[in-house]
Design brief:
Blueprint lengths: L1 E5 L9 H15 L3 E7 L9 H5 L6 E5 L8 H4 L1 H21 L4 E4 L14 E5 L6 H8 L4 E4 L2 H9 L7 E3 L15 H7 L7 E6 L8 H7 L7 E6 L3 H10 L7 E5 L6 H7 L2 E4 L6 H6 L3 H8 L4 E4 L2 H4 L8 E3 L4 H13 L1 H15 L4 H12 L2
Parallel strand pairs: 1-2, 1-4, 2-3, 4-5, 5-6, 6-7, 8-9, 8-11, 9-10, 11-12, 12-13
Helix pairs in contact: 1-16, 7-10, 8-14
Length: 375
């Protein structure tokens, strides 16, 4: 089967969707398909070969189409820069796909849904419930199928007119081999120049408000002096904003910034506790997200602290993590202390999480999607 995966994304990117896109294309190819990834030709301060950057096999093609990339001027143009970039990309995408033969066109971009008027083989992967839903409904009803990342997101679409048999729930996943590193905790800390005599609480990913990073930072006030919180990830702009917000907490916090994905297994293994502090204040966090970091945490064999939210409970529970009230720094701090002080309990939940993650590889996710597509 020939599959074209098309997405309006800057790749490589410091954002998690880049990991998902590249891993899915690799997995689709390893399942016996001919895959082409179609991307916009955009300005990118992250240099390097995408295959090397994400550590995936060079077993699929990448095609870049022109677009008018004004996103670097968004401070002057606002959302207009995003619209111009997306519309200009679509201007080249539509004729390109009309001339290309493919069994399946796979996308995770709402702006590309009008392709359904021209093609009957579109599969859409939804990561949120779109605003102005009525504008998208005519296209959604014409899809070959829809993949969603949580059951709650499936409920939203079914309640709003999409037949349940047209939707597959497929949470995100992880490449277990990449996180099966030989180095122990001490060796990872030495490799990353981290202190050997501190308890390390670690967060990876973006610093958006709904990710709960500020809640984790605020919890440092209630932690012991020998407990150190590290944030790995974020854009330059978000890091600057975040640092200004936590100005009075810097003695216990280290903001590392974005690191290549190949480094992440070492950061995770260097930690004593991994935290997923999502906020309950936004629907994307409460109901829709399937954080890639959650699956990577589970693969790292380290105890996980997470916000008790419906989206998170689809994967985590009391047997494989410590779930706490979201948006509450004091409660989060108590949970962290519990994980640090109760070694046997922490080892137990980390082991259970590792057993559970065996069901959430990219290859298994692709197998489910292909079976669904070919029904």
């Amino acid at each position: 089967m020939k599959l074209i995966y098309i997405t309006n994304a800057r790749i490589p990117t410091e954002k998690a969707h880049g990991i998902q896109i590249m891993q899915m294309c690799e997995a689709f190819t390893n399942a016996g398909n001919e895959v082409e990834l179609v991307l916009p030709q955009r300005l990118n301060y992250i240099k390097g070969d995408p295959f090397e950057y994400y550590g995936v096999e060079r077993n699929f093609k990448i095609k870049k189409l022109p677009c008018l990339d004004l996103i670097p001027l968004d401070r002057y143009l606002g959302k207009l820069s995003l619209w111009i970039q997306a519309i200009s990309f679509n201007f080249f995408v539509f004729p390109y796909l009309l001339l290309k033969k493919a069994d399946i066109i796979y996308t995770r971009d709402k702006f590309l849904l009008p392709l359904c008027l021209l093609k009957k083989n579109i599969v859409y992967e939804a990561h949120d419930f779109p605003k102005n839903y009525f504008l998208y409904l005519p296209f959604l009803n014409r899809l070959r199928g829809m993949v969603v990342i949580t059951h709650k997101l499936e409920e939203f679409f079914v309640k709003n007119g999409i037949p349940k048999n047209k939707i597959l729930v497929a949470p995100d996943g992880v490449d277990l081999e990449k996180f099966d590193i030989k180095e122990n905790q001490e060796e990872c800390r030495k490799k990353l120049n981290l202190p050997l005599d501190k308890k390390i609480v670690l967060y990876t990913g973006h610093l958006y408000e709904w990710k709960g990073a500020t809640t984790l930072a605020a919890s440092s006030v209630s932690l012991d002096e020998d407990t150190f919180i590290i944030f790995v990830g974020g854009t330059k702009e978000d890091i600057e904003r975040f640092k200004s917000e936590i100005l009075n907490l810097k003695s216990k916090i280290w903001v590392v910034g974005h690191r290549p994905h190949g480094e992440i297994p070492y950061w995770l293994k260097a930690a004593d506790v991994l935290v997923l502090p999502n906020s309950a204040k936004e629907e994307i966090s409460k109901f829709w997200t399937s954080p890639i970091k959650m699956f990577e945490y589970m693969a790292s064999k380290r105890p996980i602290m997470a916000s008790d939210l419906p989206s998170i409970r689809e994967i985590l529970n009391e047997n494989n993590s410590i779930l706490v009230e979201p948006d509450n720094p004091e409660v989060l701090a108590e949970g962290i202390k519990n994980a640090l002080e109760n070694f046997e309990f922490s080892a137990s939940i980390a082991n259970q999480a590792f057993q559970d993650i065996q069901n959430y590889t990219w290859q298994k996710r692709v197998k489910k999607i292909l079976e669904f597509i070919n029904l």
